[in-house]
Structures are given as C-alpha cells and as structure tokens.
Amino acid sequence: MPTKPTSGAPTKITQGSQTKGGIGESTLRPDGTLKVTGEFAYSSDMWHEDMLWGQILRSTVAHAEIVSIDTVEALKTPGVYAVMTYDDLPTEVKNYGLEIQDTPVLAHGKVRHHGEPVAIVAADHPETARRAAAKIKVEYRELPVITDEASATAPDAILIHEGRDDHHIGHVPHPNIVHRQPIIRGDVEEAAKKADFVVKGEYTFGMQDQAFLGPESGLAVPGEDGGVDLYIATQWLHSDLKQIAPVLGLPEDKVRMTLSGVGGAFGGREDLSMQIHACLLALRTGKPVKIVYNRFESFFGHVHRHPAKLYYEHGATKDGKLTHLKARIVLDGGAYASASPAVVGNASSLGAGPYVVDNVDIEAIALYTNNPPCGAMRGFGAVQACFAYEAQMDKLADKVGMDRVAFRQLNAMEQGTIMPTGQAVDSPAPVAELLRRVKAMPMPPEQQWLAAGEAADVRQLPGGLSNTTHGEGVVRGVGYAVGIKNVGFSEGFDDYSTARVRMEVVGGEPVATVHTAMAEVGQGGVTVHAQIARTELGVTQVTINPADTQVGSAGSTSASRQTYVTGGAVKNSCELVREKVLELGRRKFGSYHPAWATAELLLEGGKVVTDGGEVLADLVDVLEGEAVEIEAEWRHRPTEAFDLRTGQGFGHVQYTFAAHRAVVEVDTELGLVKVIELACAQDVGKALNPLSVIGQIQGGTTQGLGVAVMEEIIVDPKTAKVRNPSFTDYLIPTILDTPTIPVDVLELADDHAPYGLRGIGEAPTLSSTPAVLAAIRNATGLELNRTPVRPEHLTGTA
Description:
By secondary structure, the chain is α+β, with helices and mostly antiparallel strands. The protein has 19 helices and 30 strands.
C-alpha cells in the first residue's frame, strides 16, 4: 500500500467546545492558532523517508523553436536519479488544460512564453537538482514575439498555436483569439441619438499576480500497486486528477490526491503547476519526489490576472438616465488558454456594471500572445470591467452635473432588473442602498497625521517613514465605486459539490464527521462546514476530515462558490443523516411517545426534541452503537451558455454586490499616495460566520488596493520577458500600506441559496480599485486611466 509522508501530513480537524457555534455565530478558525504560531503544516513542509527533490528547467526566451536538448551532463551529475524531457513522457497524452488542452507538460518543438518548463530533474538534494538542471543545454532559434492585439491579429501574424482545433475556433475572427463573446441588447445606435451627454474612455489594466505567500509545492509517493499518491496544495483536487491521470497513463483510481496545507490561492492554483512533474519523476525513479518552487519560479509557475485594454462609451439624458453603452474589452490571455474563455464570459456579461441600461453593445475577447499565461484571479474578468465602467460613471456624472453617488443611485439596478444578457435579477440587488450606506459612514478626521501641538507623524503621510514630507503639498481626495460579480460556475457548467457526513457516538458523545474534497485555501470553509453540522445535527463535536479524492468532487475553491455549493452539499447530507437518525429513534422509542410520529422533530444539544422543546431522547441512546453515514451531491439551479451572437442567456446563478468609499492623501509634488481609509458596504445574504465575512471583505479590499497603486507584473514589450519576478520588485501591500477598512454588512436573503447566503469573497476586490483611483483623481484633477497608478503619472513625468 502507498505510504503517507512522515511529517507535514494533512490531519483531521476536530472542532469541539472551544469553537462552539452554529450558523450565524462568529466561531474561531480551528487552524488559526497553528497558522499564527507557525505550527501549521503547509505543503512545502512535507517530508518522506528516502525522498528525492525535483527541479524544473525553464525557457530563457519567450518564443523560439527548440533546436536541441542535451541532458548528458545533467545525467552524469552524482546524486541525480532522473532527467526527463518531452520525449520521455509515458503516454500519447502530453498536454493538459482546464478547458482547452493546449498546455504541454514539457515544451515540444517550441516554447511559447518566458519560463515555460522544458525539462525536469530528480536528485537526492535540492541543490544537486538545481545544478543538474543548469547543466542541461538547450539550443533555441528565436521567433518574433506576439505581445499585443495588433501583433496577434495582423494578417501575417505568427500563430501561437498552429493547427488549433478547440471548440472556440469556429466563432473567433483570428486563430490568435482564444474566445470572443458579444453582449447585444436593444439598439445602441438609435439610443445614442437621444443622449444629451456622451463620454468615452480608453483604460489600461495591468497584469496582477495572485501573490500567495505559500509557493507551489507538493509530494508524490509511488504506490506498490503502480499508482501514485500526491499530496498537493491546489484549488480543485478532482480537476487536477482529470488532467494528471491521462498524462501518467493511469486510471483515476490509481492517482490518489490529498490536499495538503495551502498558503493562499486567489485563482493561481486552479491551473496545474508541478503536479504532473512530481508524479512523473516519482514513477520514473520509484521514490517519493518533492518539488518546492522558490519565489522566482513561482512567478513563472502559475497564471496571473489578465491585463486588459478597455474602450468604453456611455450616454445619458440631461436628467441623468443612462441611454446606452458601447464597450470593447481586450484581455491578454498569454501563451495558453487556461480559464480565458470563462474570463471573457464574465467580463462581457458583467461589463455594464450594476446599472440599468437598455441598449448595450459589448464585445470581449482574449488573445493568445507570448506573454505569461493568464487565467483565474479573484474577481475573474469582472475586476477589469469594473475599473472602466466606474471611471465612466464619474465622468458622466460630472458631465450631467450630478453628485457622483446620486448619479449611480439613479441608475442602479434592483431586484427585477433585466441584465444586458436578458436575465432577470431574481434576488435582492441593493445597489443604491449599499451606496447610501457607504456614503453615510463617518469620514476619517482631516490631517490625522498632525497631533495637537506636535510635529507630524510621518507614518501617516504619503511616503511614510521615508520622511519625504511633513504635510507640504498633501491633498485629500474621496472616491466611490460599486461593482457586480457573479457567484458560482456559469454558462451551463454542471456546478455541483459532494459531501459525506457521518454521525456516531464516540466516547459517550454524539459526533459528526464531515468529509468533502473542498480545498481549504484560507477562506474558512472548514469552519463553516462545522457550523452547518452543528446547526443541522444538534451536536457539539464535529470532525472535518482531510480533503482528498476518496470522496466526490467539491468543485473549485473559486468563484465565491464553496460556501454556497459545498456548504449546500454539507447541509443536504446533514439533513439526510438527520432523517435517518430520527428514523432510528422512531423505531426504538416511537411506541412510547406519540410525539415521535406527530411532531416536527429537531436535533439540539445532543438530544431529540419536539418543535415545542420537549426532550424525547438523547442522541447517544438513539444511535446506541450504530453509525449513520451518507454521501450526497448538491447542485444549484442550472444556467445556460450565452448565445455566441447576441450574448443572451440565463448565464449566472447569483449576483453579489459591494460598494467602497476611498479616502486618500496625495503628495502632489512627489506623486506619492497614502490610502487613509477604504470603507465597504456589502450584501452577503446571510453571514454564516460574521467574523470570517469581515475578514474576506477586508482581504479582497486590500487586493484591490494593491492593483490600484502598486501591483503589476512588468513584461518587456520587445522580448515578452518578465522583468520583476520577485517580491523585491513586485510590490504588494504590507500592513503599513493597508488602511482602516470599516465594513457595513447587509443581509438580504437570496431565496435560491442555502440559508439565503450570497458568495462574498470576490466582490470587494472589484470596487476597491476604482474607488481608490476615483479618490486620487478627486485629489489631483488628473484623468488617470490606467492601473496601477505610479508617481510619474501624478507628477507629469511619465
């Protein structure tokens, strides 16, 4: 039988009296103390006896033919057990991908982006593996690079993928376009004639990295049955499994996957990184193989947020009502498809924002280029669109002569609004109310960096401890923004989850065990699952089993869907278990009390009670040595694909909304920005764990702040090489950059969702970015149509 790692292995989490609480209560995370004390086992902490280390050799150029690969010197290196290239792959299946299988396990024929895997090495020490990989000689014949729409769609453009035959090829105007989705409703040309005011804008959104703190890592252990056990940090175990098994030439039941500790994800772990490479080396050598990326490799080892060019035109009447919207959204998908088709669907279908506009013509496309591959990141296409349409709202409000918040409220959608896709919004859409709430929040005090009678506290000023100013030239600005995001998988995807729930007596106490394949990446699902079990089964003690592929799929931890869908599956399985437990009670005690047959029975505090509170039996006595276990799936209502000509269709199952007010201070002489506050109001439907809800909103807000003022992967437009693949040069907000983030949580139940909940994790990432930009514009009077904003954009030296 396969063996488990001797250290760093995933463990069951038991939540008992120290984390009591059901739905609606703020319960503590069972993994929280371990994480803050450094005792939590992440995937990079795993260890196995007789373990080898894997290393990946990556391309040094972005686009080139591979003339030759010489591995002789690497193989001669003492301590090296295996070196593999494309020709050593064991099956005819040599590509993988989320939707389009266009990504080679190892480069073959040519490389398409800087940092693409070319060869892999296994050795008895990580330094030995790195030195051996450096000895592999690869001869390249460089090709012209495709880096933008003009070079990608030129008549004589080199094709990134020759012979492309995926299902999108029939509806794109050029093979270097991954996917195209128009959204057409009403008559834009006629509506434009009725507009009293028209504003246009061209916007640039930079490439953002997920910047999770735990780099890609995992451990593959070969099994005695010819299979492999993979312990991995991922967002979707079963999706990984479906891509890995065919390349290895193994049936899925011989590729056993277990989730190990995940140090953040934000979309960057939806695609495979080192999973296949570790398994290949383990099966080739017959030894466990561990791979851990360093930070430099991590920037090349996962997809990023799509950079975008967005072209928008809005019209309005003199009384402020929107007349029409015309938009074109160009997303750079990089060398491989990843999640680009779905990102295009989101960007187009949500490209009008949370506003009522009857006449819409939106086109969104994603390009194939030689830039780094881009895919899922928190907000998933809606972030880029929100940046543009919120800038447009400010411009149009100014043209009309209205207050910017009032203008938004006048045009805000509500329940019953028809989306540009023709779909009716059939749950609460409190856009105007969220704007009212966030505007009504108390403003932070002016010049809070000045203490009475004392010198300025430079920590509170732009530039901070660099001591660049003591308040001279510092101007305050305030900006608002609101966004709309879909929840769950869309466009006809069969979005479901599975949960196995067991109830038994352990040590004289009823205990529930919950087993799902949900990837806990920091969002707090393990806490919510226990809360659901306590609520539905009336127990105190709940054990959460490690996520693995020995239970049905839970789908991806993305799209703000896990609490909705896997939470729904846990709730469904708990309800089925509860009915079985009550049936046991009816068989054992029903003849002694008529309430067993007539009343609605509940499980509370380890007892069976009537809806009037009368105790009928202890659960310990009901179960009496028996265990009840059920594994069940749960699906949300079906969606449908958007029409490829008009974009019409019931494409999304749920919408979520957030609004932000940003307060910034800008040193107009040096172009430095200090974000003082980012207040947020968000409708969450039902706060299952209010403490976690606040944390998710504050975390998403901070990521939006990052892309507003500092985060961007810089790609050389001539060579398509990444210039800043490290946290030395790619900047993310620290605690010193993070402002006060007050949160106002609104709970308007969605009747279609479990407990009325609404997915929350992504929405605050949308509106925080344009709110910060609006505040900087308010402070400086500059147009600022790109993100992130840099000092040179504020001082006129760009």
